[in-house]
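Try this one yourself first.
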């Protein structure tokens, strides 16, 4: 049987337990928080006062903070790209004889939870008055239209490595934004980003559990998939960021510089994620590996130390880029 078919069979084996994964890692719409829980109520007499308060305290944070928050929001808003990508994986079936399978339901329910993140951040940023929303909306439309290629094809093993990594990366980013907002006195925004980070951590735990179970069934091929993804280097979902009339990806390097300078997501965070994944999957203890997979494990075990040495040499420029997203402070 080909590697592709083996991986599909493993996915279908795990699919029998998807309902349990859903119960353990996702929350019903009636029980989970919703964006309106954190935003001024337009039906309230105090609505305009609350909006004015947001606008005033929003002036206390500089452009680097807002650029990072907008980039996080746009990344969340590009959710249609991620959903369509995941629904196309081997083993995820939308059009079977009995309708869609458990994995397809998981992807849709995960998407529904993630959808709230961009929604609440978009509305808050709109109310702040700090951002040129039309330029932001153009960037979002471009990002969805441009799609992305994360080097995984339809391979579920590689894709779940990617989601395990990215969910932890978004947890770190939102959590750091929360800390900055709280320190600046923006308690509601801080709480909002903190609870978004909590969702991301819960999703990260789900995808790492999927990988853990794959390791128990198909250890060598799972190790090779992990190796392939880390050797390729994980690409950020917003890699094609651009503003109006720019070429695809023209803005990503500038955005990355700002995120590093703001301390929201850095090269050291990337290294720390690798360490945490190695630990979560206990790759040092996995037995029964092929010779090739053993070499892959050795590479992965040494990778954090290698990447940390590279991170220590990185100098983040202090260049103040002009983002069309930003409104000048009046």
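Now uncover the answer:
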């Amino acid at each position: 049987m080909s590697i592709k078919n083996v991986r599909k069979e493993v996915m279908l084996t795990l699919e029998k337990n998807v309902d349990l994964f859903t119960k353990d890692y996702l929350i019903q719409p009636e029980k989970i928080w919703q964006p309106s829980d954190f935003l001024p109520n337009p039906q309230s007499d105090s609505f305009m006062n609350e909006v004015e308060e947001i606008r005033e305290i929003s002036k206390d944070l500089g452009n680097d903070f807002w650029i990072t928050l907008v980039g996080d929001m746009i990344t969340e808003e590009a959710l249609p790209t991620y959903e369509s990508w995941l629904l196309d994986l081997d083993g995820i079936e939308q059009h079977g004889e009995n309708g869609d399978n458990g994995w397809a339901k998981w992807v849709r329910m995960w998407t529904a939870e993630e959808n709230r993140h961009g929604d609440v951040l978009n509305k808050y940023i709109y109310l702040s008055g700090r951002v040129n929303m039309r330029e932001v909306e153009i960037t979002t439309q471009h990002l969805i239209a441009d799609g992305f290629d994360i080097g995984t094809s339809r391979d579920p093993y590689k894709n779940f490595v990617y989601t395990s990594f990215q969910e932890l990366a978004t947890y770190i980013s939102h959590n750091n934004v929360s800390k900055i907002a709280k320190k600046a006195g923006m308690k509601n925004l801080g709480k909002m980003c903190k609870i978004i980070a909590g969702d991301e951590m819960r999703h990260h735990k789900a995808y790492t559990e999927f990988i853990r179970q794959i390791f128990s069934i198909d250890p060598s091929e799972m190790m090779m998939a992990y190796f392939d993804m880390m050797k390729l280097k994980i690409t950020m979902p917003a890699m094609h960021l651009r503003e109006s009339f720019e070429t695809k990806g023209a803005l990503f390097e500038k955005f990355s510089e700002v995120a590093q300078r703001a301390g929201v997501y850095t090269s050291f965070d990337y290294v720390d994620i690798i360490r945490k994944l190695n630990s979560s999957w206990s790759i040092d203890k996995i037995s029964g590996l092929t010779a090739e997979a053993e070499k892959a494990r050795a590479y992965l075990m040494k990778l954090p130390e290698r990447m940390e040495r590279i991170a220590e040499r990185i100098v983040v420029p202090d260049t103040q880029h002009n983002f069309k997203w930003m409104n000048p402070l009046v």
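Discussion: The domain at 3-313 is CATH 1.10.620.20 (Ribonucleotide Reductase, subunit A). The chain has a mean pLDDT of 95.
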